[in-house]
Each structure stands twice: as structure tokens, then as C-alpha cells.
Amino acid sequence: MELRDMTDAVEAVSSKYAARHDITRDDHWFLLKLHEEVGELTQAFLMREGQARDKGHSPGELDDAFRAEMADVLAQLLVLARHHGVDLETEIDRKWLPYL
Q1: For the structural domain made of 3-99, what CATH number should be given?
Q2: What is the pLDDT along the chain (100 residues), one digit of tens a residue?
Q3: Calpha distance 100→95 (Å, rounded)
């Protein structure tokens, strides 16, 4: 799936979620939601590395949670970029790929 298509799909899910839970997605929400997801990724990482309580989860479950939280962070970044009209493919090309 292309990044733009993925962004459209993630936006559709995010929009449905917000409508279902009566959430206003404004500038603050998009950034704070990304921050929340990074926090959850950090927690999953610490649990996986034995630096936080595993809460009874198996190593496999901790790996699954770590991967799932990475997906959440990427999804939130995609909807944040879309909200602000940022084309991430263009920005990655501009910022990162000249160093190839």
C-alpha cells in the first residue's frame, strides 16, 4: 500500500473513532494523541526489555504489543501530517534522501 493510500485509510478509521466517541480532532488533539501513542510505545518497550512490570504478559505478547504500538505511532503521525497538509513522502525525499 502506498503511503498516501495508507494515510487515507488511517484517516477514515481515526475519523470514525472520533465520531463514535464524540472527540473533537483539533490541532491540539492531533499532536497530543501522537504524544500519547509515543508514551504507550515507550511503555511497551520498557516492559519488553524488563525495565517495567510485564503485568503477566508473555514475551510473545510483549513483542506483539511493541509492534502494535509502533503501528499506532505511525498511524497518528500520518493523520497529524494530513491534518496540517504535510506531504510526508515529499518531506522525507527533501530531508532524508539527499544523503543516499
Answers
A1: 1.10.287.1080
A2: 899 999 999 999 999 999 999 999 999 999 999 999 999 999 999 999 999 999 999 999 999 999 999 999 999 999 999 999 999 999 999 999 999 9
A3: 11
